[in-house]
Write the C-alpha coordinates for this entry.
Amino acid sequence: MSWKTAWYGPEYPTTSKKVVTNGLMLLLFFAIYSFYSDFIPSKTWASLGLKISIAVATITLAASYWAMWAGKIKPPPNNFSKLKMTLIRIVVVPLMFLSMYWLSVVYGVGNLYTLTIGTPHQEVTELQKYQRASRRGCDFYVRGGDLADNALKREFCISEESYQQLPNEPFHALVDSEKSYFGTRVLDFRNIEEQKPL
Protein backbone atom coordinates (compact mmCIF):
# COMPACT_ATOMS: atom_id res chain seq x y z
CA MET A 1 0.00 0.00 0.00
CA SER A 2 1.43 3.37 -1.03
CA TRP A 3 1.31 6.40 1.24
CA LYS A 4 -1.13 8.09 -1.14
CA THR A 5 -3.57 5.20 -0.79
CA ALA A 6 -3.25 5.27 2.99
CA TRP A 7 -3.66 9.06 3.09
CA TYR A 8 -6.37 9.71 0.47
CA GLY A 9 -8.11 6.33 0.19
CA PRO A 10 -8.16 3.55 -2.40
CA GLU A 11 -9.79 5.63 -5.12
CA TYR A 12 -7.81 8.03 -7.32
CA PRO A 13 -8.06 11.35 -5.43
CA THR A 14 -9.42 14.40 -7.19
CA THR A 15 -7.89 17.83 -6.62
CA SER A 16 -10.86 18.74 -4.41
CA LYS A 17 -10.35 15.66 -2.25
CA LYS A 18 -6.64 16.42 -1.87
CA VAL A 19 -7.40 19.99 -0.82
CA VAL A 20 -10.07 18.91 1.68
CA THR A 21 -7.99 16.06 3.16
CA ASN A 22 -4.79 18.08 3.51
CA GLY A 23 -6.70 21.08 4.84
CA LEU A 24 -8.45 19.01 7.51
CA MET A 25 -5.24 17.32 8.66
CA LEU A 26 -3.39 20.64 8.77
CA LEU A 27 -6.21 22.16 10.81
CA LEU A 28 -6.21 19.17 13.18
CA PHE A 29 -2.44 19.29 13.75
CA PHE A 30 -2.51 23.06 14.30
CA ALA A 31 -5.42 22.72 16.76
CA ILE A 32 -3.44 20.12 18.76
CA TYR A 33 -0.40 22.42 18.79
CA SER A 34 -2.62 25.29 19.96
CA PHE A 35 -4.10 23.21 22.77
CA TYR A 36 -0.69 22.50 24.28
CA SER A 37 0.66 26.05 23.99
CA ASP A 38 1.03 28.14 27.17
CA PHE A 39 -0.74 31.09 25.60
CA ILE A 40 -3.33 33.29 27.29
CA PRO A 41 -5.41 35.39 24.87
CA SER A 42 -6.42 38.92 25.73
CA LYS A 43 -10.13 39.54 26.31
CA THR A 44 -10.35 41.53 23.08
CA TRP A 45 -8.70 38.82 20.97
CA ALA A 46 -10.64 36.02 22.68
CA SER A 47 -13.91 37.72 21.69
CA LEU A 48 -12.80 38.68 18.18
CA GLY A 49 -11.18 35.29 17.58
CA LEU A 50 -14.40 33.49 18.46
CA LYS A 51 -16.32 35.57 15.90
CA ILE A 52 -13.67 34.88 13.25
CA SER A 53 -13.80 31.16 14.06
CA ILE A 54 -17.58 31.06 13.67
CA ALA A 55 -17.38 32.88 10.33
CA VAL A 56 -14.61 30.64 8.93
CA ALA A 57 -16.28 27.45 10.19
CA THR A 58 -19.56 28.52 8.55
CA ILE A 59 -17.83 29.19 5.23
CA THR A 60 -15.95 25.87 5.41
CA LEU A 61 -19.11 23.89 6.15
CA ALA A 62 -21.06 25.63 3.39
CA ALA A 63 -18.27 24.96 0.89
CA SER A 64 -17.96 21.31 1.98
CA TYR A 65 -21.68 20.62 1.74
CA TRP A 66 -21.84 22.34 -1.64
CA ALA A 67 -18.89 20.25 -2.90
CA MET A 68 -20.63 17.03 -1.81
CA TRP A 69 -23.93 18.15 -3.38
CA ALA A 70 -22.14 19.05 -6.64
CA GLY A 71 -20.23 15.76 -6.70
CA LYS A 72 -16.83 17.40 -6.27
CA ILE A 73 -16.07 15.25 -3.24
CA LYS A 74 -17.63 11.97 -2.19
CA PRO A 75 -19.58 12.03 1.08
CA PRO A 76 -18.40 9.64 3.83
CA PRO A 77 -20.02 6.19 4.05
CA ASN A 78 -23.44 6.33 5.67
CA ASN A 79 -23.58 3.59 8.31
CA PHE A 80 -26.16 5.36 10.44
CA SER A 81 -29.90 5.86 10.33
CA LYS A 82 -31.27 8.95 8.60
CA LEU A 83 -31.97 10.67 11.95
CA LYS A 84 -28.47 9.98 13.32
CA MET A 85 -26.83 11.13 10.10
CA THR A 86 -28.85 14.35 10.18
CA LEU A 87 -27.78 15.01 13.77
CA ILE A 88 -24.15 14.37 12.85
CA ARG A 89 -24.32 16.81 9.93
CA ILE A 90 -26.08 19.64 11.75
CA VAL A 91 -24.64 19.22 15.28
CA VAL A 92 -21.48 17.11 15.54
CA VAL A 93 -19.65 18.24 12.39
CA PRO A 94 -20.27 22.00 12.93
CA LEU A 95 -19.16 21.77 16.57
CA MET A 96 -16.04 19.84 15.54
CA PHE A 97 -15.09 22.44 12.94
CA LEU A 98 -15.84 25.34 15.29
CA SER A 99 -13.71 23.79 18.06
CA MET A 100 -10.71 23.25 15.78
CA TYR A 101 -10.95 26.71 14.24
CA TRP A 102 -11.41 28.30 17.67
CA LEU A 103 -8.30 26.59 19.03
CA SER A 104 -6.29 27.41 15.91
CA VAL A 105 -7.35 31.05 15.61
CA VAL A 106 -7.55 32.20 19.23
CA TYR A 107 -4.65 30.20 20.67
CA GLY A 108 -2.56 29.07 17.68
CA VAL A 109 -2.44 32.31 15.68
CA GLY A 110 -2.13 34.40 18.83
CA ASN A 111 0.71 32.25 20.16
CA LEU A 112 2.68 32.30 16.89
CA TYR A 113 2.25 36.06 16.49
CA THR A 114 3.37 36.72 20.06
CA LEU A 115 6.28 34.29 19.68
CA THR A 116 7.42 36.19 16.59
CA ILE A 117 7.06 39.85 17.59
CA GLY A 118 5.90 39.86 21.20
CA THR A 119 7.65 42.15 23.67
CA PRO A 120 9.19 40.90 26.97
CA HIS A 121 6.88 41.38 29.93
CA GLN A 122 6.93 40.67 33.65
CA GLU A 123 4.25 40.81 36.31
CA VAL A 124 3.72 39.57 39.84
CA THR A 125 0.86 37.22 40.62
CA GLU A 126 -0.12 34.82 43.40
CA LEU A 127 0.20 31.11 42.66
CA GLN A 128 -0.36 27.83 44.50
CA LYS A 129 1.41 24.54 43.83
CA TYR A 130 -0.48 21.26 43.34
CA GLN A 131 0.34 17.59 42.82
CA ARG A 132 -1.66 14.77 41.23
CA ALA A 133 -1.22 11.48 39.37
CA SER A 134 -1.77 12.42 35.74
CA ARG A 135 -1.62 10.30 32.60
CA ARG A 136 -0.75 13.43 30.61
CA GLY A 137 2.62 13.72 32.33
CA CYS A 138 1.75 16.87 34.30
CA ASP A 139 1.96 15.59 37.87
CA PHE A 140 3.26 18.88 39.31
CA TYR A 141 1.76 22.24 38.43
CA VAL A 142 0.86 25.70 39.66
CA ARG A 143 -2.30 27.70 39.16
CA GLY A 144 -3.95 30.91 40.26
CA GLY A 145 -3.73 34.63 39.63
CA ASP A 146 -5.45 36.94 37.17
CA LEU A 147 -3.07 35.78 34.44
CA ALA A 148 -5.09 32.60 33.83
CA ASP A 149 -8.52 34.21 33.48
CA ASN A 150 -8.69 33.55 29.71
CA ALA A 151 -6.29 30.59 29.65
CA LEU A 152 -7.39 27.37 27.97
CA LYS A 153 -5.57 25.44 30.68
CA ARG A 154 -5.73 27.22 34.01
CA GLU A 155 -2.60 25.45 35.20
CA PHE A 156 1.06 25.40 34.23
CA CYS A 157 3.25 22.33 34.53
CA ILE A 158 6.50 22.44 36.51
CA SER A 159 9.19 19.90 37.30
CA GLU A 160 9.25 17.81 40.48
CA GLU A 161 12.40 19.64 41.56
CA SER A 162 10.67 23.00 41.21
CA TYR A 163 7.65 21.65 43.09
CA GLN A 164 9.85 20.65 46.05
CA GLN A 165 11.41 24.12 46.18
CA LEU A 166 8.09 25.95 46.44
CA PRO A 167 6.26 26.63 49.70
CA ASN A 168 3.04 24.74 50.46
CA GLU A 169 1.08 27.95 51.02
CA PRO A 170 0.22 30.41 48.20
CA PHE A 171 3.23 32.45 47.11
CA HIS A 172 3.93 35.49 44.97
CA ALA A 173 5.71 34.75 41.71
CA LEU A 174 7.30 36.87 39.03
CA VAL A 175 5.93 35.73 35.67
CA ASP A 176 8.25 36.07 32.66
CA SER A 177 6.31 36.27 29.41
CA GLU A 178 5.99 37.76 25.96
CA LYS A 179 3.08 40.10 25.34
CA SER A 180 1.24 41.36 22.25
CA TYR A 181 -2.20 42.61 21.21
CA PHE A 182 -3.30 38.98 20.99
CA GLY A 183 -2.33 38.05 24.52
CA THR A 184 0.44 36.66 26.70
CA ARG A 185 2.81 33.79 26.01
CA VAL A 186 4.03 32.45 29.36
CA LEU A 187 7.72 31.52 29.52
CA ASP A 188 8.42 30.72 33.17
CA PHE A 189 7.71 31.63 36.79
CA ARG A 190 10.04 32.75 39.53
CA ASN A 191 9.42 32.55 43.23
CA ILE A 192 10.07 36.13 44.34
CA GLU A 193 11.68 35.06 47.62
CA GLU A 194 14.22 32.71 45.99
CA GLN A 195 14.33 34.10 42.41
CA LYS A 196 14.66 30.62 40.90
CA PRO A 197 12.99 29.81 37.55
CA LEU A 198 10.34 27.13 37.70
